[in-house]
Amino acid sequence: MRAGHQGTGPGPITPDGCAVELYSRLPVGAEPEIIAGAVPAGARVLELGCGVGRMTHPLLERGFTVTAVDESAEMLERVRGARTICAPIEDLDLGETFDVVLLASFLVHNADLEVRRGMLRACARHVAPGGCVLIQREGEDYHSDLPRVRVDPSGFTVRIVSSEPVAEGVNSVHAEYEFPDASWTQTFRVRPLTQGQFEEALEEAGLRVDRYLTEDRIWVRAVAEPGRWP
Fold first, then answer.
1. 209: in domain
2. CB contact at 8 A, 187 and 177
3. In a domain, 40, yes or no
4. Residue 70 is part of which domain span?
5. pLDDT for residue 230 is more than 50
6. Are 62 and 45 in contact (CB under 8 A)?
7. Phi, psi values for residue 211, rounded to 5°
8. pTM of the full structure
9. Is 157 contained in some domain?
10. Spatial distance between the Cα atoms of 18 and 9, rounded to a whole number of angstroms
């Protein structure tokens, strides 16, 4: 298990504390529609950190071609219909480019600065000229509106219980998921980023914000700076 990360509950748990069975049960939200509205129809998508395919499968249904990357073989076993690659995102170098590179699930908030830098460089390395990188950020009140509870219409409950500083610029978040027949917990470390810090991190990787796709600025469309290809 990665330092500072842990998970409990039935089934395999990945090194960052994610439970494979839990993520197989979580419904997809508005994300596929946000993505589809920001990119050309039928685009070739490189999905970094695809997990069990919660977004992969809806994107395939919408006519996109998806290459799905995750470091967990157990997660990738649940993905259907996409080319899959088991590898850490920060080390990825496929020698090809894509119309769209997708970095969702708040992965840009990785607590390890070098891992985050590697992830963003991988995004810049794999986006085709004229293409874009779509990134999902944390909400601005993610670490302050706590504890918070959401009861999903399908019948399970999510609790974000706490977010406590554990190192300079790093918080430890504890979440609980309760279903009628099973429950899971996950503790993980993240690095909160202001809008300015986020944009600086993009710039360091040769990227810049093209536009924010949602009013809460959680979803971002970024593009590569001309002449800067890490």
1. yes
2. no
3. yes
4. 20-140+193-224
5. no
6. no
7. -165, 155
8. 0.96
9. no
10. 10
